[in-house]
Amino acid sequence: GRSMMGGNSSGRARRNSDEAVPLKTANTAPKKLAVPPILKPTKTKGDAVYYTLKAKQASTTFKPGVKTQTMGYNGSYLGPTIRVKRGQTVHTKVVNQLNQRTSLHWHGALIPGKADGGPLEPIAAGKTKQTTFKVDQQAATLWYHPHAMGTTASQVYHGLAGFMLVDDQNSQKLKLPKKYGVDDFPVVVQDRTFSRSGQFSYQADYNADGTEGNTLLVNGTLNPYINVKTNQVRLRLLNGSNARTYHFTLNHGATMRQIATDGGFLNHPVKMSRIDLAPGQRAEVVVNTAGVSAKTLALRTNGQRVLQLRLNQKRTGRTTLPKTLNHLTPTGRLNQFGLKHQTIRFSGMGRMVRINDRVYNPNRIDLTAKPHSNQIWTLTNNDSMMGGMDHPFHIHGAQFRILSINGKRPSATQSGLMDVVNLKPDQKVRVLISFHDRGIFVYHCHNLEHEENGMMGQVKVE
Ligand code: C2O
Ligand code: CU
């Protein structure tokens, strides 16, 4: 096996994060997909909502008769879905009941640095942290997960993650499937390895270039299915894996229309035969089952079934989608005049990963920006010495638009609001980043082991 220190010990460059550990078929009976409950506020007062999340050690039964040691928020694996509206003020209380430090980061949220929950905001074992932020962004599928230095990757692997869904007037008005758990499903896809005794073997499977598992868990369910009673079903796909990239497809020629990226709706639904998601990325899709005569459909990735859709004989409801979902400025028309430029170079592998030749230092500010300003960042991934591999770039407290990939215009689905973009070896991606609130925010590789190895920098927005 691989050693803790050596990581990918063969010494050969890994060009592609899909190759390291092949996925295998679940050998358990299909089980109904678990849908995380919507978290009830402990208190509501006008536009103010109060939530409590408790991170704790627990055990979960994934395989019949086997208890796996896990971590969860308020439950035993993953966390509840937090559903907020634009304009609300969210008061959060995070209780760390673990025996190690943690933090709680709101991935994709446009909030002040103090509330962001990144590596500068750790919560010691046994401690509680309260933060407040205003929801000041459009409807989107966001998520939350720990982000303390040294414990992020293993805590996420053990189950600390959850959805935060933002609604606004547009999302409430649009004629889209929106009955949570009925025709609108959160779908977090993760890869895990179970040891012979049924435990997650994070330590044994650790890979400094990204820990992968051989078994898919969807919302913590092995081999899941959903019952589909409507013509259209909306899936909010989240790649919640430490390092694996997914390539989602449907069988039986069913159509999948992408309606949203990380940060919100696309301008128009886009028909997709395949959706690639790197760690941390989201895509909302609507599957139209109207013309499908088969009894089941399968959402698939990397040669395996992710989710089975069991189609009710009599399916009802709308079969069309709104033509217009959003009004984002087309990327070709974004005003780039007079903007500050930065070049961000990802390089290295394993324990030698770097951004602009530096390792993360919490006491160092790498870049600066003004609140509510735009900058153009050129993201590169080339390292002729070490071969190279994918590095999913992510930035906190901001959303960005892709201007070009290797000099070419982004596709329609690459033109949405993003907070993660996968940098393949030798790619150069130019993005227009819109900073929002003040504070110190990190940007990093969302391969969680690379992040922990220091592939992270800090931008001070002030
Ligand atoms: Cu999803 Cu810095 O995080
Ligand atoms: Cu990386």
Automatic annotation (TrEMBL):
Keyword list, A-Z: Membrane, Metal-binding, Oxidoreductase, Transmembrane, Transmembrane helix
Keyword Membrane: yes
GO molecular function: copper ion binding; oxidoreductase activity
Domain Plastocyanin-like: 56-170, 201-302, 350-462
InterPro entries from the UniProt entry: Cu-oxidase-like_N, Cu-oxidase_2nd, Cu-oxidase_C, Cu-oxidase_fam, Cu_oxidase_Cu_BS, Cupredoxin
Gene3D superfamilies: Cupredoxins - blue copper proteins
Family: Belongs to the multicopper oxidase family.
Listed name of the protein: Multicopper oxidase mco domain protein
Organism: Lentilactobacillus parafarraginis F0439
